[in-house]
Amino acid sequence: MAGALPPAERRGGVILAVYVALSLLLLVVGDHLPQTALRGIGAALFAPLDRVVLGIDRLAGAWRENQQLHLRVTTLELENVRLRSLEAENRALREQLQLPGYRGLALQPAEVLALTGEPYPASATISAGTRQGVHLGDAVVTSDGLVGRIGEVYGGFARVVLLTDPNASVACEVESTAVLGMLRFTPAPRPRLVLTLVPFADTVRVGQSVLTSDLSRRYPRWIPVGRVVRLGVAEGGLTQEIELEPAARLTRMRYVFIVPGPPAAPGAP
Amino acid sequence: MRGLGLFVFSLVAALLLRSTALSALAARGIVIDVLAFVVIVWSLRHGAAWGATFGFVIGLIADLDATHWLGRHALILCVIGYVVGFLARTLVRESGRTQFMLLALATAAHQAWVVPFELGGMGGLASGWPYFLERVLVAALATAPVGTLALTVARRLFGRPLFGNALRQPG
């Protein structure tokens, strides 16, 4: 059969066979290979190019966004004045009740260079790394809410594992109700964020906000995660399955903020 | 040397487009399969061996970027590159209808192969088949016209055929 083909076709067939064999081998053993270093090299090569492409894209929206940000800063400053007086009152009350005080979050800004994954991005490359004091496992947020956590760190950039990564999970609570659950991204039957492990005894309503809970080791408490959009029953029928709309716009991020997390336990991923 | 430069430029341009401009569109459910598009263009222009090579390399880079299942894009894209390159010898490559059909079929094949991995295998596919069908159809119907239009515009800009006619007729 092969002899009936011209030399160019025969060579093409051999090349294809080699590539197919290599691809199949990688599919079988790929997860055991050290991919982090290769991804680091790739991210380092692509980071300057990503900056150029994104710079052109973002220049157009910068003027309009500047106006919106001025308005938002003014609104937030006015709100901040009110919240500071409430915080002082809250601190005094917590001291009287002998409860531990709440500490504010230290934020490290970074630019989003690239998003990876279709149709929903599962990871993002950002412009801050070990040189900027970023550590593995640090939480990543936007002004709207939680984005994910640092999954890989390099010198001047890092990869963020987004909430939409199927392997990511976040311990959450429904705002003002103390209802606890575990947030996961479910790819089937359609891609969505769901709050799982919520007992039927707990009442949750559409529209309520979901925040990170203090049961999470990775994330500080009370970071907005999403809003309840649909209530359902989990597979097996023992708990509720609550569909969320993410608070942060994961597909349209320009800047994110890294929240330093607690030091990782020895041997922890 | 010029060929290598074009090879690298095509790789970088496609991957940059995928991770920046097209990612927002993909999140709205409209996947423009730029990987399948560039593999087809490369195969139509350079034949089966180069098509398979280009498909394998760009697929491998896309796999590395995606963290999981190394080899899934590389496998299907090298096969698409080879098949399209092989067929290119007998097709009227400048025909818009040919390009449309090739883009639609290649995109459908690419998406039909990679989406089950995202759904978590056959178990996920059993419950997620409506999403699977929607994704494959939308990607094919979005990529084919956009790709054909891009090739038409490129042909007008260059003022000459991009691929030339069939190299030879079969038989």
Automatic annotation (TrEMBL), chain B:
Coiled coil: none annotated. Residues 1-26 form the signal peptide. InterPro entries: Cell_shape_determining_MreD (IPR007227). Keywords: Cell membrane, Cell shape, Membrane, Signal, Transmembrane, Transmembrane helix. Its main location: membrane. One of its GO terms (cellular component) is plasma membrane. It comes from the Bacteria. The keyword Transferase does not apply. The keyword Signal applies. It is found in: Cell membrane. The chain crosses the membrane at residues 36-62, 74-92, 136-158. It is a multi-pass membrane protein. GO terms for biological process: regulation of cell shape. Belongs to the MreD family. This is Rod shape-determining protein MreD. It comes from Eiseniibacteriota bacterium. The lineage of its organism: Bacteria, Candidatus Eiseniibacteriota.
